[in-house]
Specification:
alpha+beta; 16 helices; binds iron/sulfur cluster
């Protein structure tokens, strides 16, 4: 165990004096902890705050979440990205309604078995909401422990995660499991920062931190090289007709499943002609880029004006209001929104002057 034995006392003292005030900490019910943790996966705290408040106003409990329409759910999640998280959240809510009469189960294995909940989130819910001595180990915690212990194991390896989990388990104070979990997260988020710039001078554990004492903070943690991203060149067609733009729904499975999008294809396709949309004019309108975890979209944008309002089955025409309020469109297309609005207004005024 070594240096880690010294960790809980100064860590908890520091946390209790310095913890940030966050809405999900005010009333850490299992539902609040769960939703906040799912939102915080892949998204920074500052970006999550407004989404969390809006979500809790609209969806205050498991039962409401289980019964929410898909369009409402996607709309509430719009901007947070990684939409499968929202779908899993809802499926888990339905599991809780069916299997546990709407009451969140208070056991690690039962929580872990809910859709979309992994070891980390289950550990966070168990410790923060139920006070159970279950560690919650994410990338932040792996970084902190690697540095404190001077361990140069690869933090992207499952074996390292298991090792850290078992190292932390006996350290969790029986009467302060939630604070311990949150203190570890907090230290990683605001002091033991990634990319070689930890704020060691203000760190409550620097007296026994191996990385600090041996000058290895920029070398630790060790992380294996990430796989390179696949690049896709896509053409996006913004198809306008009578102040409306064409949208189609993405397939129910895979990347951005079930969301609405501006029609787009890999470069080699012929877009509107292949979709059977008769065109009056078409012209290039610039480029945009979006980076997902494993894919990069390099988008070439074309503006198309068809001769009629005929669209393939399942596609819709959306006006400016519907685009903002009704259809959930992934953040990958955020860079095109201004252009779409401008063009709608332009086409509107062109039509009026004809
Ligand atoms: Fe991280 Fe520095 Fe604190 Fe060690 S002393 S845990 S490297 S912030």
């Amino acid at each position: 165990m070594g240096v880690l034995e010294e960790l809980p006392k100064p860590l908890l003292k520091w946390y209790r004096e310095n913890a940030r005030v966050l809405p999900w900490r005010e009333d850490p019910t299992p539902y609040h902890v769960w939703v906040s943790e799912v939102m915080l996966q892949q998204t920074r705290v500052a970006a999550v705050l407004d989404y969390y408040r809006r979500f809790m106003n609209a969806v205050p409990d498991v039962e409401t979440l289980a019964g929410l329409s898909e369009e409402c759910l996607m709309k509430l999640w719009q901007g947070l990205g990684y939409y499968s998280r929202a779908r899993n959240l809802q499926q888990a809510a339905r599991q809780i309604m069916e299997d546990y009469h709407g009451v969140f189960p208070a056991e690690f294995q039962k929580i872990r078995a809910l859709k979309g909940i992994g070891d980390y989130t289950a550990g966070a819910i168990c410790s923060i909401a139920f006070g159970l001595p279950e560690p919650a180990v994410d990338g932040n915690v792996l970084r902190v422990v690697s540095r404190i212990t001077g361990d140069d194991g690869d933090i992207s390896a499952a074996s390292m995660r298991r090792k850290v989990t078992e190292m932390l388990r006996p350290l969790i104070p029986p009467d302060a499991a939630g604070d311990f979990t949150q203190a570890m997260m907090e230290l990683g988020a605001v002091v033991c920062l990634p990319n070689g710039v930890p704020l060691c001078e203000t760190c409550p554990v620097r007296d026994f931190c191996v990385a600090f004492k041996t000058g290895q903070t920029d070398r630790l943690p060790v992380k294996a090289e990430k796989r390179t991203r696949r690049k896709e060149n896509r053409t996006v067609w913004l198809i306008f007709y009578q102040q409306k733009v064409a949208l189609r729904k993405r397939p129910e499975r895979g990347l951005l499943a079930g969301l609405w999008e501006f029609p787009n294809e890999l470069e080699e396709t012929d877009g509107p002609r292949e979709w059977g949309i008769p065109i009056s004019r078409e012209y290039p309108a610039g480029k945009a880029r979006h980076i997902f975890t494993h894919i990069e979209w390099n988008m070439t944008v074309r503006i198309t004006v068809p001769v009629s309002g005929q669209l393939p089955e399942g596609w819709v025409w959306a006006d400016e209001h519907e685009l903002k309020e009704i259809y959930a469109i992934p953040g990958a297309f955020d860079g095109l929104r201004d252009l779409v609005e401008q063009e709608m207004r332009k086409i509107d005024s062109e039509e009026k002057t004809v």
